[in-house]
Amino acid sequence: MTEPADTPLFECLYQTFTDAADASQGKARTALLRDELKRRDLDGFIVPRSDEYQNEYVPAAAERLAWLTGFTGSAGLAIVLADRAAIFIDGRYTLQVRDQVDTRVFVPVPIADTTPSQWLGKNAGKGQRIGFDPWLTTPSAFEAYERGAHAAGATLVAVETNPLDAVWYDRPPAPLGAVNLHPKRYAGVDASKKLVRIAKGLGKGEALLVSNPHNSAWAFNIRGSDVSHTPLPLCTSLIAQDGKAQIFIDRRKLDEKTHAALAKLAQVHEPSDLLEALAQCGRDGATVRFDAATTPVALVNALKAAGGKAVVGDDPITLLKAIKNAAEIDGARAAHLRDGAAVASFLAWFDEAASRGKLTEIDAVKALETFRRQTKKLKDVSFPTISGAGANGAIVHYRVTDKTNARIGRGLFLLDSGAQYEDGTTDITRTIAVGKPTPDMRACFTRVLKGHIGIADAVFPKGTSGLQIDGFARRSLWDAGLDYDHGTGHGVGSFLSVHEGPQNISKRGSTALEPGMIVSNEPGYYRTGAFGIRIENLVLVEERMIAGAERDMFGFETLTLVPIDTRLVDTKLMTRDELRWLDAYHARVRKALSPLVSPATRKWLVAATKSLGRG
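-> C-alpha cells emitted (615 positions)
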C-alpha cells in the first residue's frame, strides 16, 4: 500500500464536514410548529429522533429533530408545549447538545435523570392534548408517553399526518437507493434457507412482521443505500409460519435482476400495501409477532383493529443475525486484516505529519479515508469518523465540522473510525500521543488499556452476559475513582450496521454471549475540557478449551489488527500478564500486517510493536 504524497491529495467521498442543522433557527421553527399545533387543536407534540424503522442513521427526510432544534446526535427526543420545550439526551451528548441547540428555547434534560414520560407528567396541563406520530413511536414508547400524559391529566393524541412535516418547508425527498443482492460467498447461506429457518420458529397460524430493515436485509440477502454509512434498504417484510413471505419495498429501488430474485422468495409489494396486508391477517384471525424495538404502534393498532392478535416482543431474526456463520466470520477476518493495513499506513503517515504541527482534525479524517479507499474494496465508512484533538476528544460522539475543526497540537488525539466492506464491517479507536504525553495522560491511558485487556483476555462460562463482564473493563479506572458513561461494547453486523444487537457489553447487557457474535471492546476515559481516551478493537466470541473445565467456556478472538500506542503506556501500572498480552498482540499485528504495507510503514510498524518486556 502506498502513501499519498501530500495532504492536498486527501479527500472524503463518504462524509462531509458541513453542519446542516442550525441552532439559530430553533426559535423561529418552534414558533412555526406551535402555530401548526394550535391550528390542529393540539397543545403539544413529541418529536423523536427516529424514522418509521427506528434506525440509528436515518434519511435526510426523517431528520426532524435536527431540523427543529439543531441537534444532530444519533439519539434524542424533544417535547414542545405551548409555553416550554425540552430536549432529552443521554450521557454521550451532554456537551454536544449545548453546542448545537438554543437552550433558551429547548432546555436540555439528561434522560438518566428525567424521562420524557416523567417530564410530561410534571409539565403538561390538565385537559391538554399532546400529539405524537404513531409511525415514529414504538408500543413501549407509546405506553410511557401515555403514563406521563395521564399523570398530568392530559390526553395523548395520535396524529394522522406529522405537523412538523407540514411546516418543514425545505424537507428533502424520501430516498430511493438502489437495492443489490448480497452474494452467497459473503452471506454464507441462501436466503431461501434463512426464510425456512425463520418460519419454523413460528407457531401455527403465526406470522412475523419484520419492521427492522436490517433484519429484512439479512433474511433476503439484500443490501441497499437508503441511509448513510449502512448498506440498508428501507423496507418491511411479513413472514408466515407456512413459509410464505411478503416484502414491502419501493419498486423503483429494484432493477430487473434483483426484483426477479426477490420474487422467487416472496410476493413483492409497495410499502403502501402493508396496512392492507396486516388488515387481512386480522380478518384471518392470525397472530402476528411484532418487534418491540422497531415496530411503529401504527402497525400494531392496524392489526388489532382488523381483529388480529398482536404479540409484541423480540424479533427472532435479531439473534439469528448476530451469530455469524463461517463465511461471515472468514469475511470479518479478511476485512479486519485489510483495514488494519490501511489504518497502520495512516498512523505511520500521521506520526510524521502531526509532528509538524499543521494538521487539523479534518485533515486526519480525509487522510484515513484515502488510505482505506486505496484498498479498492471500501464501500463506505461505517459511521462519521470521530477525530478529536485535545478537549474535543472528551466529547464522546464528537463530529468535526468546518466550524469546529481544530489543529492537532501536543497532547492526545482520539480517532474512532470504521469501514464498510462487502465481506465485513470494522470499527476501531486509537488514542495517539502527539509530542510527549504527561504522566497523568499516561496513567489514565494505561488504566483504560488494563480494562481493554481485561475484556480481551476474559474467559467466561456459557450463559454469561455482557453485563456480567462489563466491570472487567472498569476495575482499574474504579480503583482511581474514575469511570466512563457509555457501554463497553456493542454488537457489529456483517456488511450491515456497525451497531447491532441484541448482544452488548454494558450495565444493561442482558443477552448471553454466544460463539459467532462480534462485539466491540472499547473502554474509555474523558476529562471535560482536557482530553479523551478510548481503545477499541472488535472481538469474536469463540469456544475456549480449558483442561479440567466443568462447564463450556467461551473467550474472545481479537479481530482488529492495529498497534496500540505504547508511548502512552506506564508499564509500572501493568501486571506481567497484561504486558504479555500486549506484547503478544503486537507480535501478531506485526506478523499479519508486514507483508501488506509499504517499506516505510513496515519500518514504523516494527517500532510501534516493539516489546515492552514481560516484567
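The chain has 19 helices and 28 strands.
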